[in-house]
Structure formats: structure tokens, C-alpha cells
């Protein structure tokens, strides 16, 4: 066997182990009884240690050195070697004991977070979250020393390979300067419109689920390779060719869960569209979380909050819930789904105020990783930031710093990819519609094939063949440009109707 084939076989085994972890994690979040938490934590910790051992196998260095000299390899194989070396370099920075400790701390913290969030009890979560944060600092420092990066950039690198806080600071400072004035303009435009009539519920969860399934099918989700369930925090997870999504239902308001389903479907379409020939190889993985978030936000924000889509979907909503009257008109539904109103909850935030939620979390997690702020001060700092950036007074920690699972689950460095993803989504959708004139008319008929086809060819099917910047430049003709996102916001939200 060649050195490359040895590597490919080895990382195929790692992928199989990762798939098992993915299904167990999904089960922990969706179906596992509380009494199994301690046992599951032990199992997950062992699997993480086993995976870490495979990724840091001493033979990998020798295989890489020999394979990188193989002139017969093609572009995909060379890119796979690049990704393997990146992963191996990062993972060898971590001792197995630190991987095991982090896995156990995360499992315990996630379980405690569910109760803490329900009870608005930050004090009860604090010791668990402190342990996760302490271990994340150690992980960031260890990876940073190996990569020559600050600790935060080393953590960010796990989600956004090649990303840096310096670049994000510039983008986010620009957005933070733009959004307050723009939001005031939007609110003034909205104030000149007639008041929206409320949608009268209740909206049974099973009916919401059935409608969500119908629209998932319209977007192109493959139910032979996935499923829809309920969880505390909506997510897309599972394994290769078993891509599962979740949502949560409010029987007083169906609109949030429905868009949540469409958002997660965007993630799932990316996972289901990855190159099958390299599905169990690093080069076949998704190209970082800003691109992943762009796929969910492209579907939810760019496509499914558009007038063409809502002209198609509103009659389905009306029929599902036996709605009638002006509140169920497609134009009223468009206004409802594009209404701007500062609020407490990130996942329910509108497209205009959403970046402020991300900027706040990004700034806080940077300070916490740098040990520039005690963790006990997080609720106060959070509430102060929400007042400053969004002008809202947070009434309790359930609606404040306890709302997201990311920090309890060890996802430090993840948050900025949401707004990077929003900017990427605008740029990709703009390029797709210019390249394929049939996309918007298709969306208006509930036919997403032209859009998904373009994404399959330009994003999904490329896996990690290219760097993030190269992928975006090849697809759109330029690297990430915030001006496209701003132009989209101005077109959609300053229109006088």
C-alpha cells in the first residue's frame, strides 16, 4: 500500500468513530433519559480519547512525509493531505488526559445547563461552566503554542480554519458602527406601515411538524438519510449519510419553529451534498463553520424570507392551520417574517439585529478566554452589552447568558461564524441568482432545484478542496465583502410598502 492509501484508510476509521460519536451526541440531546447522563459521559469521553489516539498516531507523520512527495496524486488527494496535516498538527498539541477531561466536563455542563436554563440559575451552572472554560483555555493555549497563534485564534481555527480575531474585529466593528443607525431607519419605515393583525392560534405541534416536513421536502432534504426531531436547542447533527435536524415548538406561534426547521435544513442540505467519494476523508468535510452557517442562513434568510417563497408557502400555512383573513395574506406574512424588533433571544432574532447578538457573544468569549473578565461577571456584562447594542433590558438569565448551549458544550470560538455566515450567504445568493435566472421564479413555485443545483456545484460538492477564501472567490468572483450584505439589508428593509 502507498503512504497515501495508508492515510486514507486510517482516516476512514477515524470517520467511522466520529460517526458513532455524532449519533450518541444526537441521542444525548434528543432522547437519552436523564439517568443515563453519567454513563453516557464516560462512554463519550472514552470515544473522544480513542479518536484522539487515532488522529495523533505516530505513523501519521511518516505517512504524510512520504505521501507529500508522491507526484502521482491529484488535486483532491493533495488537498486531503493538506487537511490531514492541519488536523494532525492541531490534535498532537493536546495530551489525551486533556481531551478526556474536556469531554467529561462538557457532558456534565450540558446536562446541568438544561436545568439551569429552565430555572434561570446561572449560579448553579457556574462551577460546571468554570471547569469547561478552564479546560478550553488550556486547549487554546496548547494549540496556540503549536500553531503560533493566540489562544482565541487557536480555538477559532477549529471552526474557521485560517480565521483570525484581527480580521473579525475589523468586520464586526464595521457592522457595529453601521447597524444602530440602519436599525433606526428600518424602524421608521416599519412605523409608517399599517399594524399587522395577529395570527390566532393555537398551532398544534404535530401540525407544525407536518408543515415543516412538507417544506423540508420542497427544499430538497433527503428523508432516506435523515430525520426531524425535537430538542431544547435546535441543531443539525448525526453522521455521514444520517443527517438529523431538530427544532422546538411553541403552540402559540408557529412562525419561529418553521423558520428554525428551514434554517437547519440548509445545514443538512450541505451535509447531504458533500462529495460521496471523499465522505470519510477530511477533504470531504464541510469547509468550516462560516460556510456551514452561510448555507443555513442562505436558505432561511435569503430564500425563505423572500417574497417569492412566501407567496408559495403562505397558502400552505393557511391550509395547515385553517387560517383566514388579512393576517394570512402572503404580503402580511412577508412583513411578519421581515419585521425588525430588538429582542432577547438570538435564535429568534431578525436579520437586522441578529449580528448584534453575535458581536456581543464574540466580545465576551474573547475576554473570558483571555481571562480579562471573571466568569462570575458574565450575566452583568451580558446585560450591559444587550442594553448597549440592542437597547433592551434583560429580565433574567434564562433570556440572557443561559440561552445558548455553545459555551456549556465547549464551542468556544464558534459564535463569530454566524455573522460571517450571514455575510457569506448574501454574497453566495447574489452570485447564484445572477448566474441562474431561474432560481427566484423556482423558489416562487416551491422548486428549489435550481438553487440547490448551483450550491451543489459551487459549495456542497467541493467539500474542503479549497480554502474558505478561495471557495468564495471561485463561487462569487471575490473574497468576503460585507458591502453585499449591507446592500441586501438596504434593499429588503428600507423598501417603502
From TrEMBL:
It holds the Pfam family Peptidase_M32. The keyword Magnesium does not apply. Keywords: Carboxypeptidase, Hydrolase, Metal-binding, Metalloprotease, Protease. GO terms for molecular function: carboxypeptidase activity. Its EC number is 3.4.17.19. It catalyses: Release of a C-terminal amino acid with broad specificity, except for -Pro. InterPro entries: Peptidase_M32_Taq. Broad specificity carboxypetidase that releases amino acids sequentially from the C-terminus, including neutral, aromatic, polar and basic residues. Belongs to the peptidase M32 family. This is Metal-dependent carboxypeptidase.
Amino acid at each position: 500500500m502507498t503512504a497515501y492509501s495508508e492515510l486514507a484508510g486510517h482516516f476512514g476509521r477515524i470517520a467511522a468513530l466520529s460517526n458513532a460519536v455524532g449519533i450518541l451526541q444526537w441521542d444525548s440531546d434528543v432522547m437519552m433519559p436523564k439517568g443515563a447522563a453519567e454513563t453516557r459521559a464516560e462512554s463519550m469521553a472514552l470515544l473522544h480519547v480513542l479518536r484522539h489516539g487515532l488522529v495523533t498516531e505516530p505513523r501519521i507523520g511518516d505517512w504524510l512525509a512520504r505521501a507529500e512527495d508522491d507526484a502521482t496524486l491529484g488535486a483532491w488527494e493533495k488537498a486531503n493531505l493538506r487537511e490531514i496535516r492541519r488536523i494532525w498538527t492541531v490534535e498532537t498539541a493536546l495530551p489525551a488526559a486533556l481531551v478526556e477531561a474536556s469531554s467529561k466536563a462538557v457532558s456534565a455542563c450540558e446536562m446541568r445547563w438544561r436545568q439551569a436554563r429552565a430555572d434561570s440559575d446561572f449560579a448553579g451552572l457556574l462551577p460546571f461552566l468554570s471547569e469547561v472554560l478552564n479546560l478550553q483555555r488550556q486547549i487554546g493555549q496548547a494549540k496556540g503554542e503549536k500553531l503560533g497563534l493566540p489562544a482565541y485564534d487557536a480555538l477559532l481555527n477549529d471552526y474557521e480554519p485560517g480565521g483570525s480575531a484581527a480580521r473579525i474585529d475589523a468586520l464586526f466593528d464595521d457592522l457595529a458602527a453601521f447597524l444602530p443607525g440602519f436599525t433606526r431607519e428600518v424602524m421608521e419605515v416599519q412605523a409608517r406601515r399599517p399594524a399587522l393583525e395577529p395570527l390566532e392560534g393555537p398551532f398544534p405541534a404535530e401540525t407544525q411538524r407536518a408543515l415543516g416536513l412538507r417544506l423540508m421536502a420542497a427544499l430538497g432534504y433527503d428523508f432516506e438519510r435523515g430525520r426531524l426531531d425535537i430538542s431544547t436547542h435546535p441543531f443539525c447533527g448525526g453522521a455521514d449519510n444520517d443527517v438529523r435536524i431538530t427544532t422546538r415548538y411553541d403552540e402559540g406561534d408557529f412562525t419561529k419553529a418553521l423558520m428554525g426547521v428551514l434554517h437547519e435544513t440548509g445545514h443538512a442540505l450541505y451535509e447531504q451534498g458533500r462529495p460521496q467519494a471523499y465522505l470519510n476523508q477530511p477533504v470531504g468535510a464541510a469547509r468550516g463553520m462560516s460556510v456551514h452557517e452561510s448555507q443555513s442562513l442562505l436558505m432561511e434568510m435569503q430564500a425563505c424570507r423572500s417574497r417569492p417563497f412566501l407567496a408559495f408557502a403562505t397558502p400552505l400555512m393557511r391550509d395547515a392551520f385553517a387560517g383566514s383573513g388579512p393576517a394570512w395574506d402572503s404580503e402580511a406574512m412577508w412583513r411578519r417574517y421581515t419585521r425588525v424588533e430588538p429582542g432577547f433571544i438570538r435564535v429568534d432574532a431578525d436579520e437586522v439585529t441578529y449580528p448584534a447578538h453575535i458581536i456581543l457573544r464574540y466580545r465576551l468569549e474573547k475576554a473570558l478566554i483571555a481571562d480579562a473578565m471573571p466568569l462570575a461577571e458574565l450575566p452583568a456584562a451580558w446585560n450591559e452589552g444587550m442594553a448597549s447594542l440592542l437597547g433592551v433590558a434583560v429580565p433574567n438569565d434564562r433570556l440572557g447568558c443561559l440561552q445558548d448551549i455553545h459555551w456549556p458544550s465547549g464551542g468556544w470560538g464558534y459564535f463569530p461564524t454566524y455573522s460571517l455566515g450571514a455575510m457569506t450567504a448574501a454574497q453566495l445568493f447574489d452570485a447564484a441568482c445572477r448566474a441562474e435566472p431561474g432560481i427566484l421564479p423556482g423558489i416562487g413555485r416551491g422548486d428549489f432545484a435550481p438553487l440547490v443545483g448551483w450550491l451543489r456545484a459551487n459549495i456542497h460538492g467541493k467539500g474542503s478542496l479549497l480554502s474558505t477564501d478561495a471557495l468564495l472567490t471561485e463561487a462569487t468572483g471575490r473574497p468576503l465583502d460585507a458591502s453585499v450584505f449591507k446592500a441586501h439589508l438596504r434593499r429588503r428593509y428600507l423598501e417603502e410598502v
